[in-house]
Design goal:
By secondary structure, this protein is mainly alpha-helical. It has one domain. The protein has five helices and two strands. The chain has a two-stranded antiparallel ribbon. The chain is flat.
């Protein structure tokens, strides 16, 4: 069995996320489509993939949740689902949560079930 390095797998996941970002609201059923069309962008999934990669390759092994929250808070311009956003700002960090929510409210598009932050 051939094992790919963690970074290669994560880069593939991020490329797939960016490539598929323009098709989130209108699914396609063809294998012929432009790679990285205008409007392609990384999403919250890309940010969390990087957080996982950093956690996997970091020998200190802090809890994965810490890595995800840190990375997620460093990229408030990503799109997070409502429940994930609630988790991201928890637990008990009122000042960080208030700041993060204010950024979310100022950037929210309102037209998508994901929260634009």
């Amino acid at each position: 069995m051939f094992a790919l390095p963690t970074t290669a797998v994560c880069m593939g996941a991020i490329c797939g996320d960016v490539l598929g970002s323009t098709f989130d609201s209108h699914h396609i059923k063809t294998k012929e489509f432009p790679l990285f069309p205008t409007g392609s962008h990384p999403s919250g999934d890309s940010v969390m993939t990087v957080a996982n990669m950093l956690w996997l390759t970091n020998p200190s092994r802090n809890p994965l949740a810490d890595s995800m929250r840190t990375m997620g808070r460093q990229h408030p311009d990503s799109r997070y689902g409502h429940r994930f956003l609630q988790w991201l700002i928890s637990p008990g960090e009122a000042a960080a949560a208030t700041l993060f929510l204010s950024q979310c409210e100022s950037n929210q598009s309102g037209s998508d079930p994901a929260v634009a932050v």
